[in-house]
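Priority: medium. Attachment 1 of 2:
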């Protein structure tokens, strides 16, 4: 048995999501079939806690809408071109020794994620994108903001197709990971409910302040 979180969008002012730990049976292995067994197990356990329906947000999601919301599928415009969210994130990292590897922006997301491990030297000191530098704290701020940038232009589609009580990401292990696709989607849904999504889409600083305040209250 393992424990992983699911994320529930929040309607409370000053909060962006509720983190709910769920214990479930884990099916080891990298095959999609094994991942989907674990997803089903997670969702079944959550349902017993009256948390349903849940959307898995990852490339392993059994639902197409969940796969479309993956960072490997979502795209956003950077320098006049649509680029995959994951590639933008990896190509925006600025390292203390090796600097920025902007060439990753043009790679497919799987290659970009692999290449950054080979190229990176030193600590991440900033994220550089859209002609400006972004802070590294909170650690998930820039990644989550990219999600908002990618999702907001499709808000009408999201409103019609993404109506779930909670969101999961089977690849997210809070003991090892920082960024989480499910958390980012829950944050976006919360911002929509609270009427702040446009402000956050247009201005990182607005989202940054909201996220800092929300995390202090956790």
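Attachment 2 of 2:
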């Amino acid at each position: 048995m393992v424990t992983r979180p699911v994320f529930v969008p929040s309607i409370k002012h000053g909060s962006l999501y509720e983190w709910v730990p769920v214990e479930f049976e884990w099916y080891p292995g990298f095959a999609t079939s094994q991942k989907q067994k674990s997803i089903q197990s997670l969702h079944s356990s959550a349902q017993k806690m009256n948390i349903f329906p849940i959307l898995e947000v990852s490339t392993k999601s059994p639902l197409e809408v969940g796969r479309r919301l993956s960072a490997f599928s979502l795209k956003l415009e950077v320098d006049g071109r649509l680029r995959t969210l994951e590639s933008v994130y990896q190509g925006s990292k600025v390292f203390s020794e090796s600097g920025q590897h902007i060439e990753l922006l043009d790679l497919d997301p799987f290659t970009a994620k692999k290449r950054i491990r080979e190229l990176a030297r030193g600590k991440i000191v900033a994220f550089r994108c859209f002609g400006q530098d972004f802070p590294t704290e909170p650690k998930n701020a820039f990644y989550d903001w990219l999600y908002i940038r990618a999702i907001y232009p499709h808000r009408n589609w999201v409103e019609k197709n993404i109506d779930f009580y909670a969101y999961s990401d089977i690849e997210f292990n809070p003991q090892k990971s920082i960024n989480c696709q499910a958390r980012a989607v829950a944050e976006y849904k919360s911002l929509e409910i609270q009427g702040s999504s446009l402000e956050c889409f247009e201005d990182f600083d607005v989202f940054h302040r909201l996220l800092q305040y929300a995390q202090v209250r956790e």
